Every structure is written in structure tokens, then in C-alpha cells.
Amino acid sequence: MTPRRTSHVRPFLSVLSAVLVVLLAAACSSEFPRRYPDHTGSDGSASASPRSFGQKFEEDVELARTLSERFWQQRFEAAGRAYRPIQGFQAYSGEGGPACGEQPAVPENAFYCPLGHFVAYDEAWMRKLYENGGDGAVYVIIPHELGHAVQAQLMSDFGLNVQRELQADCYAGAALRGMIDSGSIEAEAGDDEELLANLAAAGDPTDEWLRPDAHGTPAQRQQAFAGGYDSGADAC
Ligand SMILES: [Zn+2]
């Protein structure tokens, strides 16, 4: 993803959704670690697309946050509701993250805390994902966490954690599509592979759908994200 600058418009990758569908047909047979670990070397599809436009990690992080929130703000307004922006967006290091109620932050993670209505992320971990696997990491993780912030505002209720997580993936796909359609960012060649690789790396190794921390298998997470990307948030 790259911020759109009027001075040099690059070819718009309009086939992203078509490519997503094609890639989704490919089975993910590797054993993926949980959450969002560094997947370099464990997944041949992790591509490093060139970031040759002066983009920086910090810029992408801020863009992913502000554009996701803009997307939801507009959707809430269109529905006659007020969107409540998150109260904090905090980078942390290792064990030094903010607690969410009784729950301490853990290294190598990102999370939304409904108690303080904030998002926090382990910066060095996310930067490593970004540098190793491309900017898709940032555009999956942050919109996903903001998807949880939207769920909290809508007071969405779920029987299973995996449903909550897959809807957040779906919301993330919808938000990313909204960012691209609005012209704020452009998809680059290789972004689709990056996004899918990041989702796959964050999937559960097995279909543990009853577990309280279940996030969905790689294929389920990719399908949820692609569903939001292709069909919008209403389909989530
Ligand atoms: Zn989540």
C-alpha cells in the first residue's frame, strides 16, 4: 500500500479482489504459528514487495489508523450514528505495554482494549513483520484491531471468540477496500500476497473453534478478510 500522491499516479491494481479469490483457492498446508509471528521462511508466499516510494513504517502505521477510522466514521455517519474515535493508539516495547483492566499486555501482539477504548501494539514486533513481509502486515493488524473497536461501539455479541475474530478480519478487509476506493492509498503489485500471508501466519494451527482464544484457521481468516474486501462491511 502506498499513500496516493497526485504528483505521480501509479497504475492502480484493480484486480486485487480477483487475485484474492484465486489465491484463496490455494490450500495453505504449512503449519502456522499463532497470532502474528514473524513468518519469514515458513511461508513461500510471503513476498517482499518493493517499497520504493519513500514510505516508512511510521507513515503506514499512522495511515492505517487514520484511514480505518475515517472509513468507519463515514459509515457510522451514513447510518445516522456517531463514531467514537479510539482514545489512544499506543506503541509499546516487549513487556512494557499498557494493561487492559487486569490483563497485562504481552510482547509480540497488538490488541484493542474496550475498557480504555484504545489500541496498543508492540512496535518492534510489528516493524519486523513490516520489514520482513511487507506493509500488508500493518494494513491487516491495525484495521483488525479497529474492527474490534467498532464491534465494541456496536455492542456486537458473539457466542464464540472465533466469530468475533473473523468478523474483525472481515471488517479489516472492508476498511482496506474503503481506503483504496476512496483513493487514499493504492494497492501495489504483491500486496494481495502480503495480506494473505499475514492472515495465514496469524491463523490457528488447527480448527480450534471452541477455544476462548480461537482466531480461525489461515483459510478462515483469509476468507473472512476477502469477504469484507469484496462485499463490504454489511456482509460481515
Ligand atoms: Zn482480534
TrEMBL record:
InterPro entries: Uncharacterised_pept_Zn_put
Membrane topology listed for this record: Single-pass membrane protein
GO biological process: proteolysis
Keywords annotated in UniProt: Hydrolase, Membrane, Metalloprotease, Protease, Transmembrane, Transmembrane helix
PROSITE patterns the UniProt entry points to: PROKAR_LIPOPROTEIN (PS51257)
Pfam family name, one: Zn_peptidase
Keyword GTP-binding: no
Protein name as it appears in the record: Putative metalloprotease
Organism: Sphaerisporangium siamense
